[in-house]
Structure formats: C-alpha cells, structure tokens
Amino acid sequence: MSDATYVNFETRPAAAWGAVLSMTLCVALLIASEFMPVSLLTPMAQGLGATEGQTGQAISISGLFAVLASLMITTIAGRLNRKWVLVGLTALMLVSLVLVAIAPNFTVLMVARAALGICVGGFWALATSVIMRLVPERDVPRALSLMFGGQAMAAAFAAPLGSYLGGMLGWREVFWLLTPVVAVNLVWHVLALPSLPARGGQSLAALTGLLRRPYFRRGLAAAMLSWGSAFTMFTYLRPFLEQVTGVDVTVLSVLLLVLGLAGFAGTWAAGRIDGSRVAPLLMLPALVMGVDTLALLLVGGSVLAVGVLLAIWGAMNTGMSVIWMTWMSRNAGDAPEAAGSLMVAAIQVSILLGAVVGGVLLDRLSITATFLGSGMLAAAAILLIGNGQRLLRRAA
C-alpha cells in the first residue's frame, strides 16, 4: 500500500470502532454458524440418517463455496459500496440458518451450508481491507485483534452451548436460536458501517500478480498447512472426546467452554504483537497446536489433562488468525482485497481438505489416525516456515 494511502487512514476524523464491533459480532456469528456441526455432529448425523464422517462434510461444503466466493466477491460486487456488500452477506447468513433449521434431509442441509460458505468467503475476503479503512494504520493489529475476538467469543460459547442446548432442545432448535442474533447484527451493520465505496474492481491480474511473489506463495502454502492441521483435528474433536476421553454431554460442553474461553487470552496476546516483527511468530501456531494434538493421543483418557491441552490449543487457535492476517496486511498492503481473497481461499481450502481427510481417516481407520494426520500437516507447516524470514516481502 502506498504511503499516500496510509496518510489517508491517519487523517480520518476518528476510527470507526462501532463498525469494528459490528464486524466482531458478525465474525462470532459466522464462526458459530460454520462450525456448529462440530458440537452437534453426532445428533445431526442421527437426525439426517448419515454417518459422522458424512455430516462432517457439512463443513467441507461450506468451505468449498467459501473458496469460490472469496476469489469472486470483489469482481462480482464490482463498484458496489462495500458496506452494502457486507449487509447483503449477513442477510444471506440469516437465510442459511433458517434452511439448516428446517432441513428435511442431507441434500437441503448441503444447500444451506453452500449458502453459508458464500457468506464466509465473501466476508473474510473483504474483512481485512475494510478494517484497514476503518482505523489508522497503527491501530490495524488492535482492530484485527478486536474483530477476531468474535472468533474467540464463538469458540467460547457457541460450541459448549450448542452441545448443551442440542442435548436439551434438539439440534434444529440451536440453529433457530441463532437467527434473531443475526437479524440484530444485520441492523447494526446498516447503522454502524460508514459508506465504503469500492476502490476499483479486482482483476485477475491483481491475483496473479500476488501469486508471482515468492514470499507470498510460501506464506499462502504455510497458512494452508497450519489451518489444515488445525481443522483436521478440530472438526472431529467431539468423536475423540466421546470415544477416547469417554465424556458425556455435560463434560463435553465444559471442555468446549474451556477451549473457547482460552481463545480470549490468545486474541488479547496476539493483539499486542508488533506487526513489523511478525516473522518469528508465524511458526508458533503450527508448532504449539501440532504438539498439543499429538499429546491428546497420549493423555486422552484423563479429563483434566485434556482440559489443559484444549485450553492451550484454543488460545493458539485464535492467535493464529491475528498473526497471519497481520502478516498479510504488512506484506501485501498494496493489494489488500486481492490478498484477502487469496488468503481466505487458501484457508477455506485447508478447512475443506481437513474435514474431508479427517472424515475419511475417521470412517475408514480411527480417530487416532485423524489426529496423527493433523500432526503430520503441522510438521510440514513448521518445515516450510522456518524462522519466517523467507515469508517477508523484503526477502522476495
């Protein structure tokens, strides 16, 4: 990004923190909606007459459409005001939740999840570039941390509440309960987001131009491996806790709450990083979460040990998003929407493949094989990242 653009950010009369908070709530709702099947995997599979591995593909199908939406959103939206694009995506999320709640069969569920994938991909492709327009450059890491606090919020409360309320009321009712909150967020967007005129349409040249940068290609690959490792494990965490740890719904909800609450610590810590010194931190998520996943296989029979490991995993999971998006804003700030599209596509491909590969390993082998696969992906990410210097723009 040019120095002139940064000056424009700095001379805004005030940072639009109300709009940042509105996006924070949207993040929480998107994460809750996208990954709610994790906490409801078993009852959803039973209710739809499918296996747990098949139902896990409800996450992978949303990931597939998120990839397509992330690459196409700014081209399709053209010169539409980005405020109204975000409002439209939030409205589509509301429609998706209603379709999931009334889904009579697996096919309708997949259609609803595809619609949600469009919301996820479109929102995340624009999110970082919008944040960069809402606050001065010096406040971007803080604003990203605040926005990703929505991820911690969802991780803290959505999964445990989902599993608990799903046991009490039924899994369909859990999705119904999300709909009024999304409606409130829709209105908040309209009131809080300032006008955000498009700054030129995204072209294929902008995407390919970034992909021609060696450091950016390495960063995308490393991010894919990091997220792929995380979601090969996380998508099938409930079967692990039920089969290996032997927990009931109540203990499951408590463990998911521990994982989620720890996310606030990860977001808080990541929000205080110096964006100019992000390189050494890039390897940290894959290292900590990979070791954590393998440790779960060793001490999975102890509820206390599992709780400690899930707390560590949850803190690093939310920190990972802030770390990588800070890397993106610092090393591709001259093309933030194109970079956001590619980053979101890479991450969603990883989530998709993680859910697919993890599900196949679970159905054909065991939950142990699923977690070992996660650890192998983390090891590959660590080897690629190294000290992080080759992922910086000056190293290109």
From TrEMBL:
Lineage: Bacteria, Pseudomonadati, Pseudomonadota, Alphaproteobacteria, Rhodobacterales
GO CC annotation: plasma membrane
GO molecular function: transmembrane transporter activity
Transmembrane helix is among the record's keywords: yes
A Pfam family that the UniProt record links to this protein: MFS_1
Recorded topology in the membrane: Multi-pass membrane protein
Compartments, record wording: Cell membrane
Highest taxon in the source lineage: Bacteria
SUPFAM superfamilies tied to this protein: MFS general substrate transporter
Protein name according to UniProt: MFS transporter
Listed transmembrane segments: 14-36, 56-77, 84-104, 110-131, 143-162, 174-194, 215-237, 249-271, 278-298, 304-327, 339-361, 367-386
